Amino acid sequence: MTTLYQRCRQTLELRVEIAVLLRQGMSIRGIARQLSCSRQTVRRYIRMLASPAKASYKTRAPRPGKLDPYKPYILERVYAARPHWIPGSVMLREIQLRRYSGGYSMLRACT
Hints:
111 residues; 6 helices; mainly alpha
């Protein structure tokens, strides 16, 4: 089992080796073959060398969840019931009448 330190060191070594081979004029395919890694990995490290800002993955837009269409209704009900609270089982029954197909745990995480 490798430790985090060992993995970081291996990554750094791979990055340096790719940079050296690239400077020697070797192709991406040749570098990947020699270092036993994928061409995509070699491309990613080359992008890191060119521009560290482009090296990270772009953040994805959050995926819509099953509960999203019902959140306005849930929040409206919760605010209307203040200072009292509505049990999750009651709220689940109410939104199931509105064709909610998710489960109780998703509802609990929302409120």
